[in-house]
Design a protein that fits this description.
homodimer, 231 residues, alpha+beta, Jelly Rolls, Arc Repressor Mutant, subunit A, six-stranded antiparallel β-sheet, three-stranded antiparallel β-sheet, 9 strands, 25% strand, elongated, DNA-binding
DNA sequence: CGCGGCTTTGATGTTCATCAAGTAAAGTGG
DNA sequence: CCACTTTACTTGATGAACATCAAAGCCGCG
C-alpha cells in the first residue's frame, strides 16, 4: 500500500463532518488541492521533536502516539491519538516547532494540510474558526484530564484505566489486541514494565481479564471500572 | 476595595497588548461595555466545578489556582495562573460547564467578558481569532508540559521546580513570599504535606534556600536548577 | 484561654522501581 | 531453514522512595 492508493477527496471524505462541516465547496477544494496523505507503517516516525511545524495533521486511519524522549533516554508517552483526532496538540498555534515526537503504533494514514491554509480559513471563515477550535480544544482538554487521572491513581487503577481506554474509546469492544508493548504501556502511564506485567497477571488471576500475548478480553468490566474508580 | 474601584477602560488597559492588540476602537468599546471586573479576597472561590461557563475570564491582578476536588475530598491543583493569563483553560470552547474550580490564592482582580462577545469577535475578526488562539494555546500547552515535568521527577526535583516557578515566572525575584501553604504545594505537585516540609528543610540544610515561614530566598540558584534537572 | 489549623520531626509501613535470571518470540544472516 | 542474536515477556527477591501515622510546638482568632 502506498500513498497513491489512499488519496481521496475532501469533499467526500468521511471526516468532513469533523470540523470542516461549515466550509464552502470552494474552500474544500482549496484544502483538497493542497493536502497530502501519507501512509506510515507501524513504528514509523511521523515527526520528531524540534521539526518545524508546517502542516496541520490529522489521523485518517490507524493509531499514533505522541511522545517525548527524556534526558535519561526513556520515552514518555503523552497521548494516543485515534482516527479523527488531530495530532500535534496546540503547538500548531503556540510554537513554530514540534514539542513532541509522533510515531505510528499501527499502520496509519495521516492527512497533512498546509498550516497557512488553515490559518487563512480561520481568518476568513469565522464559523469554521469556532468549529475548529471547539474540536482541538476538546482534544487538548482531554489530554490534561487524562494526565491527572493517571497520576492521581496507583498502579492497579492506571492499568484499569488503560484497558478501559482501549476497550471503550479506541476499539469499542471488550476484546481487542493491544497495539502497544508492555514497555510502551509503562511509558504511557508512568510505571515500570515489570509492574505492568505483574498487574496484568494479577487481573488475570482475579478473573477481570483474559490475556494471551497481545490479545486481551475484559471479562468483568464492572469490577474493572471499580478498580479504576478506587484508584 | 470593591469592584467599582477597579473598573477600567479596555482601551487604556495595560493588558490590551495581550491578545486584543488587533481590535478596532469599535470592538474594544463593545468589550468595554460588557465586561465586568471583580475583586476577590485571598481564599475566595471564583468559580466551581460544574458551574455554567458564561464568560471568558482573565486575571488582571493577583494569583489564582485551578483545582479539582477528588473523590477522596483531597484537592488537586492543576495550575497556577498569574496576571495576564486567561483562566479556565480551553473548556470555554469544548465544554458548557467548568471542569475545574478556581479560587484566589492572593487578592485578585478578574476581568469577565461575555463569552458570546468573544465568540462573535472570533467570527468577525480573523486576525483577532488567530492572536487569541495563539495565546490560549500556549497557556494550555504549558499546563501539559508542566504536568509532565512534575510527574517525571521525584520529590526533590518537584520542589525545585516549584521554587523556580515562583521565583522566575511569578515573582521575578529570588526572594519572595510563598503565596500558598505547604499543603497546597503538596496538592500542586502530588506529594504529601510532610514531605514538602522535609524536602524544604533539606534544601535549607544544604544551603540552597533560606526559609522563614512563608518567606523564601533562593541562595544558590545554580545548584537548585541542577536538582531540578536531575529530577 | 483554648481551639483548630498549619508546621515540623521521627518512626513505621506500603508501594513501587530496580535488579537478576530465565523463558518465549521475533528478526537476521548464512 | 537453522543457528544466532536481539527484543519482548515473565517471576521473584531486594531495597529505595514515599505516604501515613503519631506527637508536639506554633500561631492566629474568637
Amino acid at each position: 500500500m502506498d500513498s497513491s492508493n489512499t488519496i481521496s477527496n475532501c469533499k467526500t471524505c468521511i471526516y468532513k463532518s469533523w470540523a470542516f462541516k461549515n466550509l464552502s465547496e470552494e474552500e474544500l477544494k482549496l484544502i483538497n488541492c493542497k493536502k497530502t496523505e501519507k501512509f506510515y507503517r507501524k513504528g514509523d516516525i511521523i515527526c520528531s521533536e524540534g521539526d518545524e511545524i508546517k502542516s496541520f495533521m490529522y489521523l485518517q486511519n490507524g493509531l499514533v502516539k505522541l511522545f517525548k524522549t527524556e534526558i535519561s533516554k526513556r520515552e514518555h508517552i503523552i497521548s494516543i491519538a485515534k482516527p479523527k483526532d488531530f495530532i500535534g496538540l496546540l503547538s500548531i498555534f503556540s510554537n513554530t516547532n514540534h514539542v513532541y515526537s509522533i510515531s505510528a503504533i499501527e499502520d496509519s494514514v495521516v492527512c497533512f494540510v498546509d498550516l497557512k491554509i488553515i490559518k487563512n480559513l480561520i481568518k476568513s471563515n469565522g464559523i469554521f474558526a469556532l468549529d475548529f477550535f471547539e474540536r482541538i480544544s476538546s482534544v487538548s482538554d482531554s489530554v490534561i484530564k487524562t494526565r491527572i487521572d493517571i497520576n492521581t491513581r496507583q498502579l492497579r487503577g492506571r492499568i484499569a484505566y488503560i484497558l478501559l481506554l482501549f476497550s471503550k474509546h479506541i476499539y469499542d469492544s471488550e476484546k481487542f489486541n493491544l497495539p502497544i508493548s508492555r514497555k510502551e504501556i509503562a511509558e504511557l502511564i508512568d510505571m515500570s514494565t515489570e509492574n505492568v506485567i505483574r498487574v496484568l497477571s494479577e487481573f488475570r488471576k482475579d478473573k477481570l481479564i483474559q490475556i494471551e500475548g497481545k490479545s486481551i478480553e475484559i471479562i468483568d468490566i464492572k469490577r474493572l471500572e471499580k478498580v479504576y474508580d478506587l484508584g
